[in-house]
Amino acid sequence: MKRKALILTILAVALVAGAVLIKMNRATPEPARSTINSQPTVAQQQPLSNNRVPAHFEDVKSIGQLPPTLSPDRFIGPAQDAYKIAQEIPQTLAQLPCYCHCDMSMGHKSLHSCFEDTHASECAVCVSEALVAYDLQKSGMRPAEIRDRIIQVYSHQ
């Protein structure tokens, strides 16, 4: 009888430990899978403050080869639209900061990085910025002008 109780206790402890490990693993953000050769400017890597602009690339020359974004078919609704945009205007998104500040929490290098994994599908800021960027580019704005507008609108939220 004592042996059965001991075995049941060991099993219960193992199950609890396994559940804790699974929960901890899910809470740990996945590292960014970026293969971009260049790095954001030093000014963009400063500590978080109200007026800090998140990481982004200043122009297409500094971008290098962008990693692919996830297929829009994996998502629905506005997230699917945003992932389509990421495939359509990747260089523009790479030149934009992401105001969910995932550069600090996940090592992202620009708004484009958010679409290389599932992060953007769970973040209204990423989706919103991509949709705004697409509309602005369709209206004739260049990436630098779009970046200025994104900074103006999102830095005060």
Commentary on this structure:
The structure is a single chain. The protein has 157 residues and is an all-alpha fold. It is 47% helix and 0% strand. Helix 5 (124-138) crosses helix 6 (143-154). It is globular. The model is unreliable at 5-49 (pLDDT under 50).
Write the layout of secondary structure elements.
Elements: H1 2-27, H2 77-88, H3 90-94, H4 102-105, H5 124-138, H6 143-154
In short:
This protein has 157 residues and is mainly α.
Low-pLDDT ranges: 5-49
Termini Cα gap:
63 Å
The major sheet is characterized as:
none
Choose one word for the global shape: globular
SS elements, strand count: 0
- The secondary-structure class comes to mainly alpha
Q: Estimate the strand proportion.
A: under 5%
The helix fraction, in percent, is 40-55%
Helix-strand sequence: HHHHHH
Features:
single chain; 157 residues; mainly alpha; 6 helices
